[in-house]
């Protein structure tokens, strides 16, 4: 199989959505442009979630209006049709939709059941495709839910297939609270046999230090797309105990040492992680940052 891996940088959205103090729009613009110069093929730049729920990203429309087109595909997360309309008005060309594999998490995160989420998401995807946009799908709590515990792999696989049938060109499988181990990845991917690996990605958090092990298992199973966040920033406001995303610089170290191709400037990513540290006013959580502080 191909040795080429796609790294999707989600720091500007997923990495910043849980911060107590929102960063300025100017800082976010600089962060995104620095990341773009690193060579990422895709960057998730913001979210059209209502500011009442995620005030850290309340400046989404202003940010998109001021954000110049870069080398990377710029993806905008949209929660519903209203969010999609806002994204379209801002000139978005690629959007991401999301549902959860856990009924309890779905209710707490979006105040919707899984069934209602599927119906509304199908409308959003259909409208986006009609408008000429491409659509990425997120499935959260794929492996473990903070409220329900382990999610049956068959449930996650069924919902993944439904997102693909809707028209999502890729579904990112989210370890929302960072509790999965490689055997969990195996179990879900086994249920997804028959789905082309290029239609799947892994979105890993590192709460229990297992994210890189899960990357390795994903690579072994044919996954070639991974989400990560510069500096290990992130967390989910609706997932108690969830810590940051897998750090981009740690992921790149693993890929580089393993002989995988990715096309991203590692040194530039590390400098961008330091830039984010300054903005957040605290050290990043990645291993590479810690090693380089010694």
Explain what you see:
- This protein has 294 residues and is α/β, with parallel strands linked by helices.
- It has one domain: TIM Barrel, CATH 3.20.20.
- Helices cover 43% and strands 16% of the residues.
- It is built from twelve helices and ten strands.
- The chain has helices at residues 11-15, 25-38, 60-66, 81-89, 103-110, 114-130, 153-166, 182-191, 211-220, 248-257, 266-280, 287-293; strands at 6-9, 42-47, 73-77, 94-100, 134-140, 144-145, 149-150, 170-175, 200-204, 225-228.
- The strands form two sheets. It has an eight-stranded parallel β-barrel with strand order 1-2-3-4-5-8-9-10, surrounded by seven helices. Strands 6-7 form a two-stranded antiparallel ribbon.
- Strand 3, helix 4 (81-89) and strand 4 (94-100) form a beta-alpha-beta unit.
- Helix 2 (25-38) packs antiparallel against helix 11, helix 8 packs parallel to helix 9 (211-220) and helix 10 (248-257) runs antiparallel to helix 11.
- The longest helix has 17 residues, at 114-130.
CATH-level-2 architecture = Alpha-Beta Barrel
Helix content: 40-55%
User: Spatial order of the strands in the main sheet?
Assistant: 1-2-3-4-5-8-9-10
Poorly predicted spans: none
Distance between the termini: 38 Å
Tell me, briefly, the overall form: globular
Radius of gyration equals: 17 Å
């Amino acid at each position: 199989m191909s040795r080429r891996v796609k790294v999707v940088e989600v720091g500007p959205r997923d990495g910043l959505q849980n911060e107590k103090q929102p960063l300025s729009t100017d800082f976010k613009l600089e962060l995104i442009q620095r990341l773009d110069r690193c060579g990422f093929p895709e960057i998730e730049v913001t979210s059209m979630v209502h500011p009442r729920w995620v005030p850290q990203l309340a400046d989404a429309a202003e940010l998109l209006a001021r954000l110049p087109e870069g080398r990377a595909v710029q993806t905008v997360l949209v929660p519903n049709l209203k969010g999609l309309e806002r994204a379209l008005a801002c000139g978005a060309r690629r959007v991401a939709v999301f549902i959860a594999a856990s009924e309890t998490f779905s209710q707490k995160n979006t105040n919707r059941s899984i069934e209602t989420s599927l119906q509304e998401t199908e409308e959003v995807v259909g409208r986006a495709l009609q408008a000429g946009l491409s659509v990425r799908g997120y499935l959260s709590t794929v492996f473990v839910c903070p409220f329900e515990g382990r999610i049956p792999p068959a449930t996650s696989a069924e919902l993944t297939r439904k997102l693909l049938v809707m028209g999502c060109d890729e579904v990112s499988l989210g370890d929302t609270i960072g509790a999965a181990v490689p055997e969990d990845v195996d179990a879900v991917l086994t249920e997804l046999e028959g789905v082309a690996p290029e239609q799947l990605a892994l979105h890993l958090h590192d709460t229990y230090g297992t994210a890189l092990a899960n990357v390795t298992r994903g690579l072994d199973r044919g996954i070639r797309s991974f989400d990560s966040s510069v500096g290990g920033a992130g967390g989910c406001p609706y997932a108690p105990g969830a810590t940051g995303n897998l750090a981009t610089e740690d992921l790149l170290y693993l890929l580089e040492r393993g002989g995988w191709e990715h096309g991203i400037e590692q040194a530039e990513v590390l400098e961008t992680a330091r830039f984010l540290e300054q903005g957040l006013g605290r050290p990043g959580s990645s291993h590479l940052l810690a090693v380089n502080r010694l």
